[in-house]
Design brief:
Elements: E1 4-8, H1 14-26, E2 30-35, H2 41-53, E3 60-63, E4 72-80, E5 83-84, H3 86-95, E6 101-108, H4 113-124, E7 130-135, H5 136-140, H6 145-163, H7 171-178
Parallel strand pairs: 1-2, 1-4, 4-6, 6-7
Antiparallel strand pairs: 2-3, 4-5
Helix pairs in contact: 1-6, 6-7
Bound molecules: flavin mononucleotide.
Length: 179
Amino acid sequence: MDKTLVVFYSYSGVCRRVAQLLASHHGWPIGEIRDSHPRAGFMGGLRCVLDSMLRLRPAIRYEGPEPADFDAVVIISPIWAYQMAGPMRTFLAHNAKRLPRVAQITTMNGAGASNAVAEAARLLKSAPILTAEFLVREIEDGSGTSRLLAFGDALKSASVDQSRGHRALTEADIALSRQ
Ligand SMILES: Cc1cc2nc3c(=O)[nH]c(=O)nc-3n(C[C@H](O)[C@H](O)[C@H](O)COP(=O)(O)O)c2cc1C
């Protein structure tokens, strides 16, 4: 990909770290999705769960470059109650038509990433070209860093594939880009 943007939402800092690692390694710019109404304390956590259970689209602010100016956008968000975090749901719903090809990263403690990928595909009306999920532990202890950077390498190599016709990237692409 020639021009790639990283867009993240983070509640407790893990996705922010993922975005910063990926963007700084590849020299990609970052955009941030923020809550219009910050989620503080117990009620904030409860709102996270309700957003997921009711598939709500909470009000957000986006701070960053215009996504339509890029060839690809990497979206990064956490899992809440087995679903994509609400603020990313809002972002995708608002920007579906202005987003180029999308690659998706989710962070979680253990389960729910496949639901987030399915929801992104529904909102965007096409499946993300590349997806990866990371456990919070893998980001905190650094054991996921090489896989994360390989994800970025695989996305970059998609520009070569583009000249041969579009196809979805696979785990095999990531394995290749590790070598
Ligand atoms: C309200 C809430 C619900 C969560 N539900 C799940 C879940 O269903 N499955 C899971 O694996 N992790 C779950 N988690 C853990 C988050 O996915 C994890 O803390 C997140 O990936 C950290 O990213 P962040 O620091 O960028 O917000 C939940 C966290 C919160 C706050």
